[in-house]
Fold this sequence. Notes:
The chain is of the alpha+beta class.
Amino acid sequence: MDTVTLMASTLTGAPSDMRHAASALETSARVVGWVLDQWLWLVLAALVLYGMSEWIARRLADRATGRRMAVELVPSRRFDPSPEEIFRYGAQLSRAAVAGPWWTPRRAKAVRVRMRADGSRPLSYRVEGPASAVHLLRTTPYGAVRCEKIAPVVRDKRRLFTVRAQFALHGGAGARLREVPLAPDPLQPLVDAVADLRAELGDLAEVCLDLQPAPRWQLKTRRWQVVQTARQAERREARRAARWMHQDAREAEDSVAFQLSRLLTPGREARESYSPRRMVMPPTPRRVDRERVLGKLAEDAHLVRVQLMVRCSSNTVGRAERRMRQIHAALDVFSARTRFAWMGKLWGPIRIGPDRPPWRKVFDHRWRTGQMRPPRTNWVHFEELAGLLKPPTAHCRLPLMPRDVPTFRLGNPELLLQGWHRGADGRWRLLATREQETLFEVAIGKAGGGKTERALCQAVGLAHAGHGLLYMDPHGDSWKRAAPFLAVEEVMARIARIDLAVTSPRARLGCWNPLGMDRGQRAHEVAAAVSDALASALGWNDVTAPRAITIATKAVQALVTVNGAACRAQMAGCQATIFQIRPLLSDPVFREAVVGILDEEQAAWWRTSFLAIPADALPTVLNPLDRLAANPVTRAMLGSPVGAYDVRAAMDRRMVVWVCPAGNGPTDRLLVALLVRDLLRAGLSRRDLDERQRVPFHAYLDELISLDGAADSSIAEILEQLRKFRVRVHGMTQLLQRLSGAVRGSLLQNSSTLSTTAGSLEAIRFITNEWGDQVDPVEVTELERYHHYISLTVDGRRVGPLQMRGPELHETFRRLARPHDVPALNRAADDMAAARPIAELISVANHQKQHVLDFLTRSAPATTTTTSSGSAPDETATSPRSFQ
């Protein structure tokens, strides 16, 4: 200071310019001196001002971020956006980020994309932003995405262990991330990383991507830094090259070869030209190409700053850390010259970063509020983030979560068993669908592929859950497979069996009168069911066999009228059976007795039109009935006036009924047609019940090809009409193309579940075509035994197709097996069906015509027994009996 004063005094006598300069110098010196004297107070004042401004900015930012809204993007299964749609959505988010009030600080002007997985959903996609941008956030350019408004704050229960991480772009300042194709989905690695989350362990993983339009002044500052860094790098390179050139020159001049060449060079001038230490011209720094150095920073349009944060939590030690490493690895799909790298330091067990104090508090505040303080390197274009600016697409394989499909629990009446599925964590889970949603099922595949085994598992599960069902198997093997698992008291009390594959005359068999009126059936429904069954089984229609349809219909109507009269007279044992159609058509005495109780309109047809029908038209109707009568088993079953078989009673009482036809010949097909048509009649008859009183009933139709050949129209009507009456149908067949067009169309149209095991390529395509291009038919042909592809309906949406392993009885219901109680089950099932020896039933069938005739002629039925075969009406038949 003394020196400055001395200089000022020296210049006092100088000219005016010199005096002014001296005055300015003296003032500056005093200011500097004052600053040096008061530096501590100045620093404190600056810190106070900075703290106040930061506090005000934070309060304003917290206030702005407290007024946020959120939407969730729910894509459809066919969501496949184009790059242009993604670009437009990125621009829309960028505009929404700055839609807040004018006083909003820069750190609060951001939009957050939150991808969340908690073990209940594969990966939810949420977008959060200012409430003033609601018009921008609630609309998207994605046509196959549903935008739903949700709560802006995600409230989670506290987990014991939480790991945090923030990522910055490492690499060249202007370098771009890798251009990831949209197929397969760029989110696939992230989905795979969180696929095995377990909600019961408290697992949670969230990835938050905050977007903010590039601030102009920060972008200019960043560009200047990048260019200056490039220029300094070029200068260092030029200096390094100059040093190497000088060193190379010195080494060359000091070498022996150089000195010898100099000595051997003739002439003084030549030797002087090799004078040592020649001057070497250093290279000049290359001119920096600004556009090349800046790269993506050279363009202002669609450039944004990003803040990428990840948080993983769990209640189990180590699971959160493993999840964080998996997510970090998933982000490598975007790596190129630049990549997302974890911010922080790691020295052995010591970690410094957002997961440790004091940085943890800052991280949690940004995580909670959505405010941005990203690293200065996090500048990207929309094209680089295309994989993150959309929810999962159709090209993403989403894992099946417990929330998507329920887990089967034995005894739960609301669930229907489907099969084993292996989750992303490698564990097998037994899947189920909602019973009330599984209306119709279709299963195809080669013999022994597992479709019947799966149906048996479903039937056993339903029986133990208290549901009623009818299992119709033309081969009869299903009963032997399922019996050990049904031999429990709860099921034995309501199970019935009608096994038509018996051969011994002493074998017991349940009986059924398709024309019976002893249980309050409606006459027109019974008549229509029997006549339609005959027409369906025999291929009659109004074009090919009009007379046969007319004759059969009139005969059935007449006998149903007789049966109604017998039941009103309390003489149900005198009802006519289907075998009385022959005497009605060929025996004048019997026909006249029947016509005598008909009304005038019906009787007129028999006395006029019937007599005009030529005799050669009757065999068309009589021959099929003769085949039924010639088979002792079918004659025994259908020849009794009263039987216990009653599908309507089985529906209302939750019965388990097993019907096993003997085969698939013409006679068996006719019997199957009667049974299937009666199922349709019984289902339609439930219209007299209130909808809340209609308990569910499941009908399993195995070997659908055999059944369809006999009752195609009946099966189609069942599939189309019985849904309203809570009758569910499950069909199994080897070849879908062999079914009639009506049945096949109804199955595919109304099915809640479609499944296929291995088989021929042509057969499999009928199912895979329903799934579009999601499953390769060739892949299905290579499935192992009991494995199949299946699509399910859960909560009103289709799930799948999934690859599953079909259930097996001995594996799924092992603890229910009671093989030693199977004989008791057989006896209980036969008792429930009121089964009697075949010989006794045949005796009743042989004398039933006479009993009907005696009733019609008003003569008392014979009351004495003449022979062991019996000529009197069955005493048990006088008391109508159905499933009890």
